[in-house]
Amino acid sequence: MTAQGVGRRVDGGPDRTQTETHVLVHPPDRPTRLPAGHANAVGLTLGLVGDEWNLLILRYALMGVRRYGEWRKAMPISHAVLTRRLASLTAMAILEKVGDEAQGRRFEYRLTKRGRDLWPVLLTIWAWESAWVPEHVESLPRMIHRTCGKEFLPILACAACGEPVRPRDVTGGFGPSGTWERSVPAATTRRRSGSTSEGGAGMFPQTMALIGNRWSAAILGAAFQGLHRFRDFEQRLGAPPTIVAERLRSFCDLGVFEQTPSEERADWPGYHLTEKGRAFFPVVITTIDWGQRWFQAEEGPALVYTHRGCGRAFQAQLTCDACAAPLRGTDVVVERPA
């Protein structure tokens, strides 16, 4: 078991935020119990997934990398950054440090059960980047489904009825531990530099533009919750207006949002998800699904969804677009690009 402090408590709104330190115990094979009133599963998970170095480390871990030197060889990452990320992922019980240098054995970092359970998030990110983002430093991994032997793309479906799901097919919102304040990552997450020494645009350039910053992730999540007016983003999220304006402009430039005239006033435009933006829904929902399985607040879940088609509680499932069979982590082969 490992421990990590959580230092954000919300006592009734963005103007009454206290910082206290609570130690969380992260058993690798069981959910972490979150204290009442603190950052919920969504906030904690976005802080993890919204860091591109974490995603790259996990990408190679899923392809079999276990040793420090192998990550250094595969990634344009410094010693200090890799050391910090491996320590953080180990503290979160996503990786497990195994070995004993005193006995001549080199340490390995192996994925735990909760670490292996992140594969749907990585798969949906790869699929979205492949379909919508032309610029990549290197080719994205190939995904092979063992069951049918074909290269595939994951399709989001309802685990209860098996039907494919689009954003409009799911309804719901905040649950017992869900508030805007508790769902925003506690600290600004970081994405890789765009400099040549850091590998150019990165492996997930636009994914990081969407979730690699606390306010970007919050605005995107709010859009899927139905917010579309500037003042709603500002007031509900408690974000500075200059930041809201910059993020909305950036999302429009990426083609994820489109600006539309307001029915109330011409100078109050609305911001709506485009087809490209809606296509990011599988990333959002698999991230939330993983977070709520592994981080459970005392009060209950942060978000509760229902599948309109079957009327049952929605839980994400990925299926193979080649054979339509449900995907399981053990059936997915991730191959390094040639």
Automatic annotation (TrEMBL):
Pfam families named among the record's database cross-references: HxlR
Ranges of biased composition (kind: Basic and acidic residues): 8-19
Keyword flag Transit peptide: no
Native organism: Planotetraspora phitsanulokensis
Region annotation (Disordered) ranges: 1-21, 172-199
Annotated protein name in UniProt: HxlR family transcriptional regulator
PANTHER family, A to Z: TRANSCRIPTIONAL REGULATOR, MARR FAMILY, TRANSCRIPTIONAL REGULATORY PROTEIN
Top-rank taxon: Bacteria
HTH hxlR-type domain sequence ranges: 34-137, 201-299
